[in-house]
Structure formats: structure tokens, C-alpha cells
Amino acid sequence: MNDGTAAEIRQFLLDSLTEMNYSTEDIDDDTALGPAGADLESLSLAELAVRVEDRFGVRFDDDEAEKLAGMTVGEFIGAVAERRAAAATAGS
Q: pLDDT tens across 34-58, in order?
């Protein structure tokens, strides 16, 4: 994964969480997105997924939305980066 891509996705994620009124003070790549970490509720996870989809041109299926709560920030960034790279490859 391109470090610039990961950094861009991470910054967008943190900015989005801030806009959604979540504290990002203690969030790092090992922080879970769901109740065990950042404490995003399912509606907030869905909003975050939509923001990421719109910004990076990737898609998450409805059944994947539930899996997001169990992902760490680092795993989520990796998943977005993989999909972004796959979409770029498919488009060329």
C-alpha cells in the first residue's frame, strides 16, 4: 500500500470523525471503530462508510457494514486502500 494513500485515508477518516462530533484524540491504527474503541454506532459507521465511498470511489456492501464495527482504524484504512487500488486497476 502506498504510504501517501494510507496517510490521505487516515486524515480523511479523522477529519470525518471530527465533523461527526467524535473525539479523535486517542485514536490510532489499533483503535477499533466500534464500541470497543472509537465507539461509533451503526448509523455513524454507515455515514463514515458513505463519506469514504464518495471521497475515494470505493464501495462497501450492506453486509460489510456490520464488519466495520469490528475493524481497527488500520484495518479499515487498509481495506479502503485495497479497494481504491483495485478500482484504479479495473478502470485502466
A: 988 999 988 999 999 999 999 999 9
Measured CA to CA, the distance from residue 84 to residue 79 in angstroms comes to 9
Please, which pLDDT band fits residue 27 given cuts at 50, 70 and 90? very high
Q: Give the three cell numbers for residue 69.
A: 464495527
Q: Which residues are 32's β-sheet partners? A: 72
Query: How distant, in Å, are the alpha carbons of 4, 27, 72, 92 from that of 47?
Result: 24, 18, 17, 29
Q: Is the pTM above the cut of 0.85?
A: yes
Instruction: Decide: helix, strand or coil at residue 72.
Output: strand
